[in-house]
Design a protein that fits this description.
The chain is an alpha+beta fold and 260 residues long. It is 15% helix and 34% strand. The longest helix is centred in the first third of the chain and has 11 residues. The protein is globular, with a radius of gyration of 19 Å.
């Protein structure tokens, strides 16, 4: 599992009636000519009471939408922050999309999908992600260089982070890798000695998602920067746990709930 991979460096800064005359059931939702009848919605990085968390869509049978353009259109149509297509459930081969981009790796997608599939690893375009379950937490192990560029912006107090307005999207000229130039992760210590952090994430993609409720990739970057385990409260109340590991790896964990 612990094999280095090359990557991108990050930047700091009701059922119808039955019987005669009943109308036929509606057709399954479609994207292009491929039917998609089965996908799960999870909440990842939930709080201790099971609330909050960042929604994730997982299409368990990726063969229904084999083409990348079809997948991108379907992800845009659904409008979740991230949508995962499972290409091999036994080996954990997955493909990840935002409404506008295909991602080589994403933290909350991997944490949620690993929990749903119950596999020891996931295979992403960026590399092989280790996975494990420990009580109520689902954990993955990944590398900072797999994460697209973010601006990690520290503030003096958690109250300052709470009060931040949503920044406008930024457009790179030329575009930054994976189109992530405007992604800002704002954070502050709540209790530095205890490793407790308050954070908010602004993807800046201009796709209608102004703030991410929980962002595993950015938490990975912050952990790699600080070199210590963190307990992060992000968004309205999501919880992310992280811990640096030997050889440049970082673990990210959180609670996952099946929403529908």
């Amino acid at each position: 599992m612990n094999t280095p991979f090359s990557g991108v460096p990050y930047q700091l800064s009701g059922e119808p009636g039955k019987g005669r005359g009943a109308p036929p059931p509606p057709p399954p939702p479609r994207c292009f000519n491929a039917p998609v009848t089965d996908y799960d919605v999870l909440r990842v990085f939930c709080a201790a009471n099971g609330g909050y968390g960042n929604e994730l869509c997982v299409v368990r049978d990726g063969s229904l939408l084999p083409d990348r353009a079809e997948r991108q259109e379907f992800a845009a149509k659904l409008g979740f922050g991230e949508t995962v297509f499972v290409d091999d459930p036994e080996r954990g081969v997955i493909d990840i999309y935002t409404p506008t981009l295909r991602l080589p790796f994403a933290g909350h997608s991997c944490v949620g999908t690993a929990w749903l599939l119950d596999v020891p690893e996931l295979v992403t375009p960026a590399g092989v992600v280790g996975a494990r379950l420990d009580g109520e937490f689902s954990w993955i192990e990944a590398r900072a260089e797999w994460v697209p560029p973010h601006t990690l912006r520290q503030y003096a107090t958690a109250a300052e982070v709470d009060d931040l307005p949503v920044p406008p999207p930024e457009v790179g000229t030329p575009p930054a890798p994976f189109g992530q130039r405007g992604r800002v992760y704002a954070w502050a210590w709540e209790d530095e000695a205890a490793g407790r952090v308050r954070a908010r994430a602004f993807p800046g993609r201009g796709d209608g998602i102004e703030e991410d409720e929980a962002t595993g990739a950015a938490a990975l970057l912050l952990t790699d920067l600080l070199g210590r385990a963190l307990n992060i409260t992000q968004g309205a109340g999501s919880q992310l746990l992280t811990a640096p590991q030997p050889g440049g790896w970082t673990e990210i964990g959180g609670r996952v709930r099946l929403e529908r």
